[in-house]
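Quick check before the chapter quiz. The format below is the same one you will see on the exam, so make sure you can read both the input and the output lines.
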Amino acid sequence: MPLCNVHINLMRIDCYISPHCGSNEALRENIGKALEFEAAEAGVTFSVINKQEAERLGLMGSPSVLINGIDILPGEIPGFS
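Here is the expected output.
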């Protein structure tokens, strides 16, 4: 019989980037540094998407970063290009 049944929920970080965004490399580096600094683990995805997909997802800028499904910089003005 197992001693405990623990479910660990990793933080999920979803990054959405336009094809022409120049922030891709810096974003990857900064997320890695932040996770290392905080000694945190996360499932991180990077997706290159077009304007139509960004609109469908309700994203306003590139890059857009969602942590556990919540945009870290919600905005009112679309700027995905």
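If your answer matched, good. The chain has a mean pLDDT of 87.
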